[in-house]
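Input chain follows. Return structure tokens only.
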Amino acid sequence: MSMPGPATATPIASATATAPPIVSATATATAIVSETATVSATVSESVHHAVPANAPSVPWPPYVAPRDPIGDWILLGVSALVVALSFVMSTQGQTQVLFPGTNQPLPETCHFRRWTGRDCPGCGMTRAFISIAHGDWRAAWRFNPASWYFYPLVFSQLPFRAWQLWRYRRGLPPIFTSSWGLAPAIVLMVVVLGQWLVRHLMEFFG
């Protein structure tokens, strides 16, 4: 009479045969977790080294790495020259600008006006700056309304850039050098182009 034992060996062998896929899946999951942990550690280490040890801990304003102060020197010098010339130069009539000590008007430099016969967005800005420096804000508005924003912006560069350079000498980081530092320039572009479009539309429909 035959024994039933050998007949039950097949399911056990089959179950044993299906074990490797489970072991393989477990090994794969373990490898993925290990690789993820390695990547996270690498990113964390990179972020840690990206911020200097002496960076301020306050969240605002954000830390900005020190930069070369040559740009501040240039802006300070250009702003000082523009403000000084606005005080010593003068206007004659509605279109002429006179250099100090001479009676000869400066030549027209706007190529857009020469080619089209119309003012460009910056036309009249020199005369407007001179008018503001001499206290005639109404004349400055007639020459170029954007001068009411542009001239104070240029004038403000004198104390601001001097302050920036003082901070450099003290070893302090510069201020307002993030993306927000471009806001005054963007506003200036909008104001200059906006007043130019409004003036031409008023001439066209008026």
